Automatic annotation (TrEMBL):
CDD domains: CheA_reg, HATPase_CheA-like, HPT. SMART domains: CheW (SM00260), H-kinase_dim (SM01231), HATPase_c (SM00387), HPT (SM00073). It comes from Peribacillus simplex. Residues 298-548 form the Histidine kinase domain. One of its GO terms (cellular component) is cytoplasm. Pfam families: CheW, H-kinase_dim, HATPase_c, Hpt, P2. Residues 550-680 form the CheW-like domain. This is Chemotaxis protein CheA. GO terms for molecular function: ATP binding; phosphorelay sensor kinase activity.
């Protein structure tokens, strides 16, 4: 069987299972008495092992198997949980993640995991098992609390249903069903088989489980257990009529063989009340009565789409937006009423389509946030600190292009908060704080932007230390330092190479890498600001655009050329007189609403050929970058519109203060101005 067609699904589902393992391990560490969490981790590990074996990744299979053994011993109360045990399991998950990433990048998924395998084996063999009496009590308690206990392959409830069905004269069968080797739409065939079975009786269990069958996570065969009033021959004949089925083996279930094992359980646990059994999915031979269908997991309403297809769809839609602009221009020039109405209708439809296409590209920030709890846990252990990471708004969505870039800046900010924000337990207790520090990672929508906050309750930023460091590094003069607000002082830590750390640590110094954080966020059309109170904590606020592909701009004219300025950077537009222009420090400025704003003449910056003389009044676009404002001098305002952002390509990517280009409705190319580059 060709496995390549399943590779993408394997990679995505492996990532999901490993993410579940990481998340649940963190939950288990805080709630070690809750063994239901261990079952959740065990199921993910078990599924991953099966998938890896099917795909032929031996190293992945072997390591998962070792981890599964330890988890099985934990859930059976044979191994006690400890911080050291958690460390080893987290290491195993890290190795598994690395192997899956290797496969995703075209590798063979092989990795040297001898050390972590050895540690898992030591844990598995080195701990003495719990006494049989305690184990029996724990097992009985588990059944009473509905954790799963098995008789053969059946849990207590399934076994009871099978036994009482037998007592009422029904047949119990284990049925193995095989599809043809090249069977297509296996999930649909499974559905047809279940439909046949449910008309003849009731399905008690399937292997693999129903949810995996629906996702086609099996080879060509699967097994179901059912109770029915019909014979094995009748059941076999009905299933064989389903297309693509080429093998059916119906075996009567040997309940007597399982009874001995069941007796020991019945001695430990009181029999399930009769009324509970009556609620089970027992069949009836009264055809007039509606058969009760077994409870199935809710079917998924989502499908996986290769991101390349979404990129192609986005490119096609971008061309449609360009043509829509062209039609608007033609309609305006011809002044034809019917054409006006048609173009307006097309504009409404494409606007709805634009919303759908952009939403399809939206990804929850959870995909980025998911890796942080494990990272924070490990850093806390490395730094001998106690830290609780709280995440809010993980469901908040961002465009995939933004998601791809935002991960590293958030890692920098979290590492800095851990290293120089949160104090040691001893320092916190001395300050009257809880010894466990708190970091809040929060995301939320506001308008056309997404905001991400990283707040810690640590030491805060020492303004004097920041100023002294900035002065000693020559970043600013004493005269300038005297005029800075608190927020402006905090923002000095974004200067390249700036750090207040006394010593360089393996983690970070507050400020190390923060210039990279700021540059990355601003390259995405966003901004980052800081607020802090000494000994109370700090807040880093990141503002990001929802999408980078289609943006709203103000179109302006500079001589005979057209330029686009993103609306997200614009405060307002104004008309000023030349007589109002002042000079300060060799810079032309204006007094705008009580603030001194520098004027930037775009015709000079972009060296636009002069074809007409300037008028006595100037058109100015007031733009901002964080707390800084500037006035961009243009020749005229054309209007607001939505444009498609196109890259300038490798040959022109170094063009100063230009972030891209767009094609206008009349076929002209307009360059898009990068306001962040212009403002210093």
């Amino acid at each position: 069987m060709d496995m390549n067609q399943y590779l993408e699904v394997f990679i995505e589902e492996s990532k999901e299972h490993l993410q579940t393992c990481s998340e649940q391990l963190l939950v288990l560490e805080k709630n070690p008495e809750d063994l239901s969490i261990v079952n959740e981790i065990f199921r993910s590990a078990h599924t991953l092992k099966g998938m890896s074996a099917t795909m032929g990744y031996e190293d992945l299979t072997n390591l998962t198997h070792k981890m599964e053994n330890v988890l099985d011993a934990i859930r059976n109360s044979q191994i006690a949980l400890s911080p050291e045990l958690f460390d080893v399991i987290f290491l195993a998950v890290d190795d598994l993640e690395a192997m899956v990433m290797s496969i995703a990048e075209g590798g063979d998924g092989k990795r040297n995991v001898e050390e972590v395998v050895h540690q898992l084996e030591v844990i598995e063999k080195g701990e003495l098992p719990v006494s049989s009496t305690i184990a029996e009590i724990a097992a009985a308690s588990a059944v009473l609390e509905k954790e799963e206990m098995t008789v053969g392959e059946y849990d207590e409830f399934e076994w009871t249903v099978l036994k009482q069905s037998k007592d009422q004269g029904f047949n119990s069968f284990e049925i193995s069903i095989g599809f043809r080797e090249n069977c297509l739409l296996k999930a649909a065939r499974v559905f047809m088989v279940f439909e046949v079975l449910e008309k003849s009786g009731e399905v008690i269990k399937s292997h693999p489980p129903v949810e995996l069958l629906e996702e086609e996570q099996f080879d060509q065969q699967f097994t179901v257990t059912m109770v029915t009033a019909e014979s094995s021959e009748e059941i076999e004949e009905k299933i064989m009529k389903v297309s693509e089925v080429d093998q059916v083996v119906v075996n009567a279930l040997d309940l007597e063989g399982l009874r001995h094992a069941a007796n020991s359980i019945e001695d430990q646990v009181a029999e399930i009340p009769e009324q509970e059994i009556n609620k089970a999915v027992l069949p009836t031979d009264n055809d007039d009565k509606k058969k009760q269908a077994p409870v199935k997991p809710a079917s998924s309403k989502t499908i996986r789409v290769n991101i390349e297809r979404l990129d192609i769809l986005m490119n096609l839609f971008e061309e449609l937006v360009i043509d829509r602009g062209r039609l608007d221009q033609i309609s305006s020039d011809l002044d034809n009423q019917e054409l006006h109405e048609t173009v307006e209708r097309m504009s409404r439809i494409t606007s709805d389509l634009q919303t759908i296409v952009l939403n399809m590209r939206m990804v929850p920030v959870e995909t980025v946030f998911n890796r942080f709890p494990k990272m924070v846990r490990q850093l806390a252990r490395d730094l001998n600190k106690k830290v609780n990471l709280e995440i809010n708004g993980a469901e908040t969505e961002l465009d995939r292009t933004v998601i791809d870039e935002i991960g590293d800046p958030l890692v920098h900010l979290l590492r800095n908060a851990m290293d120089h924000g949160i104090e040691t337990p001893e320092e916190r207790l001395a300050k009257g704080k809880n010894e466990e520090g708190k970091i809040l990672l929060k995301a939320y929508h506001s308008g056309n932007h997404v905001f991400i906050e990283i707040e810690d309750d640590g030491a805060g930023i020492n303004k004097d230390r920041v100023l002294n460091k900035a002065l000693s590094n020559g970043i600013l003069t004493k005269e300038t330092a005297a005029t800075l607000t608190d927020k402006q002082i905090y923002e000095l830590i974004f200067a390249s190479g700036f750090s207040t750390a006394e010593t360089i640590s393996d983690v970070s110094g507050r400020g190390v890498g923060l210039d990279v954080v700021k540059n990355t966020i601003e390259s995405l059309g966003g901004s980052v600001t800081i607020d802090s109170k000494e000994n109370e904590g700090s807040i880093f606020l990141i503002q990001l655009p929802l999408t980078l592909s289609i943006i709203s701009v103000m179109l302006v004219a500079i001589q005979n050329e057209k330029y686009a300025i993103p609306l997200s950077s614009i405060i307002e537009t104004a008309i000023i007189k030349k007589a109002d222009i002042l000079n300060a420090h060799n810079q032309q400025v204006i007094d705008f609403r009580g603030k001194i704003l520098p004027l930037l003449f775009l015709k000079d910056i972009f060296e636009v050929p002069i074809s007409q003389e300037e008028e006595e009044s100037l058109s100015v676009v007031i733009v901002r970058k964080g707390d800084k404002l500037a006035g961009l001098v243009v020749d005229s305002f054309i209007g607001q519109l939505e444009i498609v952002l196109k890259s300038l390509g490798n040959y022109l990517n170094s063009a100063f203060a230009i972030s891209g280009a767009t094609i206008l409705g009349d076929g002209q190319v307009a360059l898009i101005i990068d306001c962040n580059t212009l403002i210093h």
